[in-house]
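note to self: dont lose this again. the chain is below, predicted strucutre after it. 590 aa total, dont forget to put it in the shared folder this time
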Amino acid sequence: MNTFQIRDDFYLNDQPFKILSGAIHYFRVHPDDWYHSLYNLKALGFNTVETYVPWNLHEPQKGVFTTEGILDVERFLTMAQELGLYAIVRPSPYICAEWEWGGLPAWLLTEQVRVRSREEAYLQHVEDYYAFLLPKLAKHQLAQGGNILMFQVENEYGSYGEDKEYLRAVAALMRKYGLNAPLFTSDGSWRATLRAGTLLDEDILATANFGSNAKGNFEQLQAFFDEHDKKWPLMCMEFWDGWFNRWGEEVIRRDPDELAQAVMETIELGSINLYMFHGGTNFGFMNGCSARGQIDLPQITSYDYDAILDEAGNPTKKFYALQALMKERYPQLDYAEPLVKEAVAYPTVSLNDKVSLFATLKNVSDCQKAFYPKSMEELGQTVGYTCYQTRIERDAQDGERLRIIDARDRLQVFLDGQKLATQYQEEIGEEIHFQQANQEAELTILVENMGRVNYGHKLTAPTQAKGLGRGVMADLHFIGQWDMYPLPLDRLDGLAFTNEWEEDQPAFYRYHVTIEHCQDTYLDMTGFGKGVVFINQENIGRFWEKGPILSLYIPKGYLKKGENEIIVFETEGKYRENLRFSQEHVYKDL
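---
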């Protein structure tokens, strides 16, 4: 039986073992491409793969669990083991990861619980989740013949709280449901975060996260160990080899040679996990959001991260620069040439059908009625858009005014189908002035959840509840009698393309492309405004003309031989009669 222990060093079968790990999130990579990414990690000379586990995907609705398709973490672990890779798994209730609400399921917002706390009701939800998930992971522990070396307790908790009772409860649940492998925590390298986020009294290894200056950061971690008389190995659990990107900002890049030198410095001093080795894609509505003062800044669909592999899983200059230095310093390790996939630009296709959202609302959503508007979560929805409709009367001949209170995150206001305003966070609450031609008119408000905050104090802020908040005011009073249409956009097969299309309204656009050989490609969304794209009913993510990327990566696994359906949901009234493909990402000149 293989053994893994943490003493003064990491020991694999009683021999000192340097962990050379890279992060690949199975839920950000199409399952058809898992082998490609894992093979390239092994080819680099590394020996371990690390992954988070996203609670909000594995339990999308309370009590509804899944590990199917892209969520088949057991298949991912088995594939890694077959390639000779060990694994580090982080099944934390909270993962950050620039992921929607840091991986916390949005249905928790209706449960009146304090997340990431000792609160009994919250811990019961964690236990329900762990009772489903952890026995599956337990089978893949090293001692059970699998490849998992160790598991993480929570995630960077020292950057959020200091509730040791909560951390102990999470660790106890992990043990209760069969995780017998060593446990660890990961935090910033400075004393404040280590003091708040670690479980030294439980003898749980503390690791540090950083992206440069390994000597200085490891010195801080070692000083913390010395202070508490801990003789543990040094490990950087997240070595940030790139960074994520937000809408409207320049793409962040890091010099490959500088990065390779910084990684080698880290490896000389301890063990490492490259975050990310392969970043992948925020498919669907799963991008996270950064908190900046009063404004939240959502992240883009691509999670390329300027990582060692690009979004498609192909080696970058960083791969070759790092592998070259690895071969010089550690010639005894196993290396190989990386796998490279070719992308193709399929021929341009023409628009087949289009229909306005408001003309087909009842085909894609079930109406819920209430006097006061309900939030997205109260409607049983977690992501996407919500459409609110009511009737209003004309009260003044010289113009009307509206104010929308507490809506999140972005809204568009229509009167009898004509757009009155678009408001983002900093404008929501400002008065909207308009002339109403008829005595009675239909007021429609489309609200988009652009991504919940994934890090920091705003995790528990009221702003993480989406949709309409306290309501809408006409003049000085709240309006009642609302029809509400949840739009997670998970039922597009009923779209009524025979219905009307109106200019300047949110709409669906359908294209077809016939494919003989399925290969990766990129969909060029230049000319469209804002929205999401569906390939054969699969939501591959958001686009926005703000950039910095104007295209969407489409893994070949989402395509099929023969006719493929592409549906674009666009909210700004901008579209193209012809849809173009590319062999690589299309960037906006910012």
